[in-house]
Amino acid sequence: MYIITGVDGHFGSSVAELLLGAIPGDQLIFTTPFLDKIPPARIERWRDSGVQVRIGDYDDPDGLTEAFKGGERLFMLSAMKVGPVRQREHKNAIEAAINAGVKYLVYTSYIGGEKDNAEAIVTVDHHYTEELIKLSGLQWNVMRDSMYMQTMANQMAQVGFDTGNWRVNEGEGRIGFVAREDCIRVAVALLLGKGEPHTAYDITGSEALSYPDIFRMVMTLAGRDDVEYLEVSDDELYAFWDSLHVPREATGDFSRSPTPWCSDDMVSYGRCVRQGDMDLVTDHVEKLTGRKPIRMGEVLAAAAASWPKAPAKA
Fold it and tell me: Which of 114, 64, 123 is nearest to 94 (CA)?
């Protein structure tokens, strides 16, 4: 039996759908803390296929253990809130897997998750989790995803169009951006046994790009020249996100924030990019899935139709 967590979100539900297309539904357990966020028709279709849909909340260890019971191979999607909250939730999930009798775990980590001296908050959390997994006694694979291309095509581009500028602290640092769809396919491949036991895979696209590279690509596709590219200091970037009501900590108020990430997360990440910590390209997507990775230009072109047009000139 396979267990897929987080099926209320895009990543988890996509893994669930791909896996359902590969194996019988009666071999699947889908879990979510938010059953009400899933369209009822989708839940009915899953159940009609033999899937068991269960409530599983990383903040409820006992309930999570019950949700995982009967499963042997677990897809553990990383939690959203960076910092101590995420670390606690991941610890709960790993302990629940052990207590439920799970044998194997696939976890969505991040580039640099192996480093014990990481500076980016996101990487600190993932390193903590990877260490727990290694000590768990479970068989495992870790997929260290690079930054999603969709983050640039959607959130970053949209903030730029809304504010009239791209404020970044990444400098000329480069990133092996990866398409979210490629990460989803890798997760399914690992669950189906394509990886080597007790192995972590760095999941990237086929090219390393800088923020200036992507800014130029976005402006060309958008046909706009009215957005300014600004390289700023860490403190200046904090001030910018403050002005947009982005909380500094993951436990803050996101009700008026244009992004789901706190500024502590984004600023520390940008600093690591600037230092060259994310400049990595691998061929793991193609080796694990049999497909070449999607390129940034494809993702940006697909998103371009949703970008706002330049304001009319007086």
Answer: 64
Tell me how far apart the alpha carbons of residues 226 and 222 are, in angstroms, rounded to a whole number. 10
Q: Are residues 83 and 215 in the same domain?
A: no
Query: Taking the CA atoms of the chain, what radius of gyration do you get in angstroms?
Result: 20
For residue 42, what are the domain limits? Answer: 2-144
Q: 302 and 234, same structural domain?
A: yes
**Could you tell me if residue 51 is inside a domain?**
yes
Angle between helices 84-100 and 61-68 (to 10 degrees): 40
CA–CA distance, 292 with 63 (Å, rounded to integer): 40
DSSP codes, 238-290: HHHHHHTT--SSTTS--TT-SSSS-HHHHHHHHHHHHTTTT----SHHHHHHS
Cβ(166)–Cβ(224) below 8 Å: no
Report yes or no on 265 lying in a domain.
yes
- Residue 277: pLDDT band with limits 50, 70, 90: very high
pLDDT tens-digit profile of 74-131?
999 999 888 899 999 999 999 999 999 999 999 999 999 999 888 888 899 999 999 9
Could you tell me the two tokens for 92? 């709960």
Q: Is 122 exposed, middle or buried (0-12, 13-18, 19+ CB in 10 A)?
A: buried
Whether 135 and 227 share a structural domain: no
State the Cα–Cα distance between residues 67 and 298, nearest whole angstrom.
Answer: 38
pLDDT at 137 exceeding the cut of 90: yes
Q: What is the pLDDT of residues 219-228, one digit of tens each?
A: 999 999 999 9
DSSP state of 178: B
* Separation CA 67–CA 55 (nearest Å): 6
